[in-house]
Amino acid sequence: MQVITAKQYYDQLIIKIPQASQRIIIAVMVMSAGRHTDKLFDLLRDALGRGVKVHIVLDKWSKLSLAREKGMSSKAFTQIIKCTVLQLEDLQMLGATISWVGTIGPNPFKGRCHIKIAVIDDFIYSFGGVNFNDAAFEHIDFMFTTQDSGQAGVLQTLVQNIAENALLKDCEIMLGTKASLLFDAGQPGVSIIYERACALAAQAKKIYYISQMCPSGRLGMLIRQTDHICYFNRPLQGSIFLTASLVIDMFRSGLRTNYHRNEYLHAKCILFVMKDGSKQLLSGSHNFSWRGVAYGTQEIALHSLDVQLWDSVYTFMKREVVP
């Protein structure tokens, strides 16, 4: 696997979608029309014209005002929603499968599908945090990518099951001898990803933490008790909700951020140096906040013992995150 930045991910989509001959699968929490994404929608239309099967899975959060980027007016956001729906309806008329997932209720944060996956033939992009909107491609973020027909098939099946609401329990799927895919099915208070993060933190001697949010709950306590460096957004860098969450979680955990750049940090991973000197990483869509676990959020993550991949993420951190 390779680590690519959010911008590099967009550039690869621009190249790979026109080359697709069999399948294109995109699963994200947020998808919206825009200067960058409109080019991708055009390429998806061309792919459908070539007979490529296209399946898009997106969360209903995309339609909620809470998905509005900081600084965007309500009027502009309403127009973007209309344009997005028209784009998706057009793709559907051309033969694409469009699946809206996630629940809408009194608590809009409950029942979200937060995964990020793209499969283009046998190329996969996942285990990072990049959504399908213009702002996402500008964030400090990354995706893992590789060409692997087996992993592409695993992710396709996972996305199909999510679209059909067929996954009722958390699961772990081995991806070779050094890595496994972890999936949170969205049961409130249950998260295989969060529990794995806690288990690794309890055994680590050094932790590098990167997320848009401050670690909270038991994980925050374990990280504080360990030699650590945390990088997460400062209060006021995001929405009102994020600001409130950061203030509360920083107070409860006693953790502070070493992130001082102006760009919005959206990457989500933890690098562990274990007590025996070995290295492990956990990376994906999970923000490592107990709040998301309590709400019941569907997430995906990669747990890897690959030292080269660990070093690649560490290099990303030093280049893109560290001041």
What can you tell me about this protein's structure?
It is a single chain. The protein is an alpha+beta fold. The chain has 2 domains: 2-163, Endonuclease, Chain A (2-Layer Sandwich), CATH 3.30.870; 171-321, Endonuclease Chain A (Endonuclease, Chain A). It is 37% helix and 24% strand. It is built from 9 helices and 14 strands. The chain has helices at residues 6-19, 35-49, 74-93, 149-163, 192-203, 217-224, 240-253, 290-295, 307-321; strands spanning 2-5, 23-28, 53-59, 97-101, 117-120, 123-126, 142-147, 171-174, 179-184, 204-210, 227-231, 269-274, 279-284, 299-304. The strands form 2 sheets. The chain has a 7-stranded mixed sheet with strand order 1-7-6-5-2-3-4, with helices on both faces. A 7-stranded mixed sheet has the order 8-9-14-13-12-10-11, with helices on both faces. A hairpin with a 4-residue loop joins β8 and β9. α1 packs parallel to α2 (35-49), α2 packs parallel to α3 (74-93) and α5 packs parallel to α6 (217-224). It is globular.
Counted up, domains total 2
Q: Supply the number of helical segments.
A: 9
Rg to the nearest angstrom? 19 Å
Low-confidence stretches: none
Please write the string of helix (H) and strand (E) elements. EHEHEHEEEEHEEHEHEHEEHEH
Biggest sheet strand order reads 1-7-6-5-2-3-4
Question: What is the name of the CATH superfamily of the largest domain?
Answer: Endonuclease Chain A
